[in-house]
Amino acid sequence: MNQEDIKEPDHQAASDPVRHQPDRTLIKLMTKQDTRSARALLVVVLSLLVLCSMIYLLVEMVLEFIGKPHLLFSPQVELKAAVNLPTLLDKLPTAGLIAIAVGLVMIGFWLLWKAFSSGHLAVHGHVDDRFAMVSDDAVLAACLSAKVRHFAQLPAGQVKTIMAKNQITLQVVPTSGRLLDQQSILEYAQGVVEEWKLTRKMKIKVVLSGRGVVNR
Amino acid sequence: MRNYPRKTNRFIIFLTGLLLLALATLLLCLHYLPQLRQIWKQSFKALTKVDILWQPFSSFSKTGPIMLILMLLALIICMVCLKVIIAQGGGKRSRVMKVTHDGEQALSIAQVSFIEDLLKQKLANPQLVHSVSASAWKIRKNTALRVDVVIKHGSDPAQIRPILEEAIADMDSLFGTAVPVLIHLSRPWLERKAARTN
Fold first, then answer.
1. pTM (global) more than 0.90
2. N or C, which terminus of chain A has less Cβ within 10 Å?
C-alpha cells in the first residue's frame, strides 16, 4: 500500500465516536461518475486503430530503411500517393468520393456528439448524505412494474416499465371486464418513485393499452 | 470508480471528430477546387526538391532523412496511443480503512475482503439480497469503497436502503471512521437480459 494513501491522525475530531462524514462533493462525484460513461471503450478502439496503422507504417519504413522487400506498399510509393492525391481523387468516381466524404462527415459529427453529450448510462442515482447509491434502470423498472402490478391487481406480464433519462413510461395492459384508473396508477407510481429519492426528477407517464387481455 | 481520464477521453474523441470532418472537407475541396489542387501539388513538389531530405544516407539504405523523420513521428504517435490505452482504468486498492486512534496515533488498515465479509453478514437477507461484493478504489486522493449489491428480481431499492444504512453505520462504528462508500444495486446477471416486464 502506498504511504501517501494513508491519512495522518486527526486530533481535532478526537471526541467523535465516528469521525468526519465523507465529503458531500465526493459522494456527489461518485454518483455522477457511476451514472455517466467515461467513453473509455471508444477511446481505446480509436487508439488501437491508430496504433495498428502506425505499427504497419513503422514496419514498412524499417523494411525500406534496411533494404528488405516491403509487405504491401513501399513507403516511397505511399509518399508519392500523398503527393499525387488530387490525381488519385480524379480517378475515383464523383459519387464514390461524395460517399466517402459523407461517411467521414457522419462519423465526425457522431464523435463530436459523443464528446459533448452527457454520456448518461442506464443507471440512476439516489440522494443520500452518508453514501453514494446508484441503481440499474432494470432494477428500478422491475420494482415499479411489480408494485404497479400488485396495486392494479394484474397478472404477470401486463405491466411494462421503460426507464429513460428523465422519464418513466408505464405501459399497462388491462384485463378484460375490469376497470383501471389511469390517475390512481399514476399517483401510486409517483409515490413509489418519490420513495426512491432519485437525484433526477422523473416525469412519469402511464399508457393504458387499448386492447385488454382476457381474464382467465 | 475506475480512474478514467474522462476529460482526456472527451478531448481525444472531439479531436478525432474534428480531424475526420477536416479530412472530408479536404477531399471534397481537392476534388472541386482547382486552385487548392494547384497549391497542394506545388507545395509537395517544393518538398521533393529539398535534396537533403531525400538523399540516401549511404549505400546501406535507399531512404533519406525524410523517412527517418516519418519513422520518429509514427513512433511518437504509437507511444501516445499506448499511453492513452494504459491510462484507462487503474486505481484499485486492496485495503481501504484508514483508522486513526487519537492519542496513541496508531493506524489500522482493513483488507477489502474483511469488509466484504462484514457487509455480507450484515446484508444477509435472502428475500431481498442475492449477493454482495466489495472493492476499494482511489478517488481524488481518497480511498473509497464500492459495494455491488445484486438484488432479487422486483426488490424495492427503498426497502433495501434502511438495511444498507444500518450496515454502513455498523461498519462506521466498528472502524471509528466514515469511509466514502458507493453502493451499486443491480439484478442477477442471468435476469439482466430478460424484458423489463413483471
1. no
2. C
